[in-house]
Amino acid sequence: MPTGDGLLARWLPLGPIPVASFAALCRAGARDGNGIVEVTQRGSLQFRGLRPATVAAFAQAVDSLSLATNHAPPIASSPLLGLDPDVSVDLREWLVDFRAQVGHETISPKVGVLVDDGGALHLDDVAADIRLRLGASSRLHLSIGGTALSAQSLGWVDMAQAGIVVNQLLEAFAAQGPATRAHDLPYDSVTLREQLALKCSPPPCPPARSGMHPLQSFKLNDGMLARGVGLAFGYGHVTQFEALIDIASAAGAKAMCPVPGRAMLIIGLRPHDMDHFLGQVEALGFLVSPQDIRRQVVACAGAPACRSGRMPARELAQSVADAARGRLPSGAIIHLSGCDKGCAHPRRAAFTLVGPGHLIREGRADGPATDLVTPAQFVARLPALLRGAYER
Ligand code: SF4
Q1: Per-residue pLDDT tens for 331-384?
Q2: What is the layout of strands, in order, in the sheet containing 36-39?
């Protein structure tokens, strides 16, 4: 899609990307684009700054690595599918069949499906129109419209029936119009189950799980580890990723994968190399601690990378993080948004600065401004604002 710094390519990889393939992607990103790589909050991978003359070559590079699909709807899945020792069913083969079976030509391109294998790196916080979560007895819990907490439960479906049931739901979306998402359906879950005669047995829902942060280690079924590393403000340069590939390979990694929460998962690390690996990763500018203040400052690309940007949100992020260090309570978010669309954080934040200079306290980017400040004034006043808000 066209944006301020050229064309942007975004896709949801089908699964872990072998390190050699990721290195090839980085080379293509540097050759055909401006070298900026992003991982979104939903775990999509983005390469920026592609040019009309180079975009075909970039697409060919991605195609040759078999990393992407034009599947509609996109189907996200657990990043450690088949690799988590505590998950009894390996869903990888089933997922290939499911992807082949599920689809609809006239649904909104925003409709998304999610498959969670119930493992340690869960997807409860990722919103999707249709959610499937593996539970006991190899059955899948089906829910629609939201995160695990907010979605409406439709009950349990057999793995063999899941493709049929999901296609019935997609048909129901399409019948309401091409822009219809799950939350637009004019039915409650009971009516929907009955009207479509869905082959689902009723709830109860599976138990809720605590919030997931990817910046931790995960055990793998071959004795190795996977480790999440964060991207400061959601982006990096291919040179940074190439250095990451080198140190990850030296520590045994075989694959990597973008994951929700603006992070990369490095898969196959030797446990005894982990401490050394993390030290090197941190020195490259990646984040290894969930408490890193840069996790609490969310910034979109802003001007000039985004045409709609009225403030260089990303360039401002480091000085905002420096001003907030030690003063922002855990979990509170400062959102820097180039315009009131609020792409990077479409939710409330403790402080939202919207370009060119609208400050919103405890609200969303499209909310009413509580103060008018320039970005420089915001940085200068932030320590006092945080003292006023949190030191009572
Ligand atoms: S919030 Fe506005 S400036 Fe930022 S990426 Fe979205 S459209 Fe662009």
Answers
A1: 999 999 999 999 999 999 999 999 999 999 999 999 999 999 999 999 999 999
A2: 2-3, 6-11, 45-50, 36-39, 235-237
DSSP bridge pairs for 144 = 130, 152
Residues in the chain: 392
Atom 2 of ligand 1 has which residue's CA nearest to it? Answer: 339
CA–CA distance, 224 with 221 (Å, rounded to integer): 7
- Ligand 1 centre to CA of 320 (Å) is 18
The answer, yes or no, to whether residue 325 has pLDDT greater than 90, is yes
Pocket of ligand 1 from Cβ distances under 6 Å: 300-302, 306, 308-309, 337-339, 341-343
For residue 342, the ligand 1 atom closest to its alpha carbon is 1
- Alpha-carbon distances of 89 from 80, 81, 164, 223, 297, rounded to whole Å: 12, 9, 20, 18, 37
pTM for the full predicted model: 0.94
pLDDT per residue over 41-51, tens digit each?
989 999 999 99
Measure 317 CA to ligand 1 centroid, in angstroms: 14
User: 25 CB contacts (<8 Å, ≥6 apart)?
Assistant: 17, 47, 61, 62, 65, 67
Amino acid identity of 359?
L
- Checking if the pLDDT of 25 tops 70, the result is yes
Give the nearest ligand 1 atom to 4 CA.
8
Give every strand in the sheet of 371-372, ordered side by side. 297-299, 334-337, 349-354, 358-363, 371-372
